[in-house]
């Protein structure tokens, strides 16, 4: 994912949504990627989990602050590289 930096104001507060199968270790994948790129990510304060109506899938929402284009691209690249991640928004 390539972003146009001139369209963003950094630091930038954003909500990141990640979806995958309910039985996958999705939360661990998200936390690991965010800790790698952000360093100061606090799971308890910044992460929520919501199951789908049938319980087949789960969405993880993370409230994050990114400081540059490379962080955004790295987060999306690493999340999309995981076999447990179906969709990132």
TrEMBL record:
InterPro entries named among the record's database cross-references: UPF0250_YbeD-like, YbeD-like_sf
GO cellular-component term (any): cytosol
Pfam families found in the cross-reference section: DUF493 (PF04359)
UniProt similarity note: Belongs to the UPF0250 family.
PANTHER family noted in UniProt: UPF0250 PROTEIN YBED
Name this polypeptide is given: DUF493 domain-containing protein
Species this protein is from: Alloalcanivorax marinus
Classification of source organism: Bacteria, Pseudomonadati, Pseudomonadota, Gammaproteobacteria, Oceanospirillales
């Amino acid at each position: 994912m390539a972003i146009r930096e001139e369209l963003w104001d950094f630091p930038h507060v954003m909500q990141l949504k990640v979806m995958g199968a309910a039985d996958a270790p999705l939360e661990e994948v998200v936390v690991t990627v965010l800790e790698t790129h952000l360093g100061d990510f606090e799971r308890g304060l910044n992460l929520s989990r919501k199951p789908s109506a049938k319980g087949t899938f789960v969405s993880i929402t993370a409230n994050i602050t990114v400081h540059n284009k490379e962080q955004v691209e790295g987060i999306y690249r690493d999340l999309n590289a995981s076999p447990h991640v179906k969709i990132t928004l």
